[in-house]
Amino acid sequence: MPVTSQLFAVLRNGEISKICSSALQPQNRHLCRKAVILRVNKCHLRFFQTANSGICEPKQLTKRSPALQVPSRKYQTSSQLLYNLTPPQVNSILKANEYSFKVPEFDGKNVSSVLGFDSNQLPANAPIEDRRSVATCLQTRGMLLGVFDGHAGCACAQAVSERLFYYIAVSLLPQETLIEIENAVESGRAVLPILQWHKHPNDYFSKEASRLYFNSLRTYWQELLDLNSGENPDIKEALVNAFKRLDNDLSLEAQVGDPNSFLNYWVLRVAFSGATACVAHVDGVDLHVANTGDGRAVLGVQEEDGSWAAMTLSNDHNAQNENEVKRIRSEHPKNEEKTVIKQDRLLGLLMPFRAFGDVKFKWSIELQKRVLESGPDQLNENEYTKFIPPNYHTPPYLTAKPEVIYHKLRPQDKFLVLGSDGLWETMHRQEVVRVVGEYLTGVHQQQPITVGGYRVTLGQMQGLLMERRARFSSVFEDQNSATHLIRHAVGNNEFGVVDHERLSKMLSLPEELARMYRDDITVIVVQFNSHVIGAQNKPGEDV
């Protein structure tokens, strides 16, 4: 088997063009879609117009970006557009992308701090712009798990989901292993496998780009060999270096281009779209979370009384993070203080303040024009790619450098939830942890029903009690904790109870309306082995 195939095994065949919409056509909340008018210097400039029908989420136009205006378009929202799905139909939709993995036991014992994981995705965009990845490191210890949220198309998220874990794994390899791999490649011998992937059949690799990806990765490990520090890599440093290097390679590949016309267009689609990434590396009791953007990692902690507490292990990189706002303003001249962040968006356009790709916020104007002039016709015909952000004076404005948070696992740390912002926009972190914790343990805290100031009749209260009973029985509908969490995220009513009618209507919305009400949702739930974690914490240590 060729070396490239050994390192980049193709799990599912299929052309990229079939799985990704054009990354050069912005299609979600980070860069609002359809014909968008942007007010610049008291003039109106056509930002972009996609061929696909779509709309910006109303709450973001009014709450987050009043500068973005969308021409009115009337949608028929009467009940005739919606129909009630039966419970089996609802389950079929919710479970279509679910995946579970249990860590194998050895001699009847589980020696890993990870028992296994559940994952799932629910699209709002068509096609979905989120991606997910999980892999076991074979040449070093540990497991990698990540969620990737694409914007302006799915191309960048697709590329990052395939490539980032290889960059992380290579960054963690000792010099001897790197030398062994390089010698094997050079001599044409079999290469040591680096990762064991755990993927749903719908999660696939880009067959056409595998050689390009391999060549860039090989260049990276050759440079690591040249540095020859002789020290074992630090995990935090390895994560930061891997993120930054992959983003640099995405940019370089787009600048250099490729003789193959398909690949040439593909690398440009990847570079001009963008993606956030939230990645966890678990090795024994050592948990590192590397986050770039607005994905989130939340730890589920079980207190002594059985209740659940949420511990956030990542920070959102957006306008709600004061440290991020200060960082960005400090990196640009004083005269840009009022324009670098506008309407809570980077340069008034981009919601996440850190991301892969998005070269329109990183390249100089001269470089953008040069690449566009020498690029394919599809690139030149797209209004978005030719548009230069307003007040674009001192790039780069965007970075893919992650913020890494370390946590030493304790026996009370039961699970970790990684989710794209589509989850956190609909559920509070404490509610997420409670729902997952009760699902995994089967123990439900019988709290008094609260109605949040609503005036309810006795009949309505009886209905709420019946719904709560139904909620407990609904646990048995789901064999996957991520599916169960998404069911709550989409179907919860104002009382925090899954309402089948609401869930049915939300899942039956037509494509052009679905994105108005929610975003793509991607969830990974990692369950920890408390016995192993307790044994690995030395006696007397504060856990």
From TrEMBL:
Heterodimer of a catalytic (PDP1) and a regulatory (PDPR) subunit. Belongs to the PP2C family. Keywords: Acetylation, Calcium, Hydrolase, Magnesium, Metal-binding, Mitochondrion, Protein phosphatase, Transit peptide. It comes from the Eukaryota. InterPro entries: PP2C, PP2C_BS, PPM-type-like_dom_sf, PPM-type_phosphatase-like_dom. It comes from Polypterus senegalus (Senegal bichir). PANTHER family: [PYRUVATE DEHYDROGENASE [ACETYL-TRANSFERRING]]-PHOSPHATASE 1, MITOCHONDRIAL, PROTEIN PHOSPHATASE 2C. The keyword Mitochondrion applies. Its cofactor is Mn(2+); Mg(2+). SUPFAM superfamilies: PP2C-like. Its EC number is 3.1.3.43. GO terms for cellular component: mitochondrion. Coiled coil: none annotated. Residues 114-528 form the PPM-type phosphatase domain. The keyword Metal-binding applies. This is [Pyruvate dehydrogenase [acetyl-transferring]]-phosphatase 1, mitochondrial. It is found in: Mitochondrion. It catalyses: O-phospho-L-seryl-[pyruvate dehydrogenase E1 alpha subunit] + H2O = L-seryl-[pyruvate dehydrogenase E1 alpha subunit] + phosphate. Mitochondrial enzyme that catalyzes the dephosphorylation and concomitant reactivation of the alpha subunit of the E1 component of the pyruvate dehydrogenase complex (PDC), thereby stimulating the conversion of pyruvate into acetyl-CoA. Transmembrane segments: none annotated. GO terms for molecular function: [pyruvate dehydrogenase (acetyl-transferring)]-phosphatase activity; metal ion binding.
